[in-house]
């Protein structure tokens, strides 16, 4: 049966990487969302803020990769804080 599955594309979809817990930072909500890429975890996440009653969201992906999911989440949070400090609300323009 497994031969037929592989022959006809019966493979299961890869499991989605769970996002990290949201963290508040200077009025923004940061959600780390690293994903698996070639056996490593890619730095990624979202930064959100309500501005004038409208929820704005900035998604980021960086070239940094990590061997463990926990390291990727920690670094994604660090990178998001850096984006907030450097760009502030301009990231939503």
Q: In percent terms, what proportion of residues is strand?
A: 35-45%
Mean pLDDT: 87
CATH architecture: 2-Layer Sandwich
Class inferred from helices and paired strands:
alpha+beta
Write up this protein:
The chain has about 90 residues and is an alpha+beta fold. The chain has one domain: Double Stranded RNA Binding Domain, CATH 3.30.160.350. The protein contains two helices and five strands. Strands 1, 2, 3, 4 and 5 form a five-stranded antiparallel β-sheet that branches. The mean pLDDT is about 85.
Quick description:
It is built from two helices and five strands. It is an alpha+beta fold and about 90 residues long.
Helix-strand layout with pairing:
Blueprint: H1 2-7, E1 23-25, E2 28-32, E3 35-37, E4 40-51, E5 54-66, H2 69-87
Antiparallel strand pairs: 1-2, 2-4, 3-4, 4-5
Features:
93 residues; 27% helix; elongated; Double Stranded RNA Binding Domain; alpha+beta
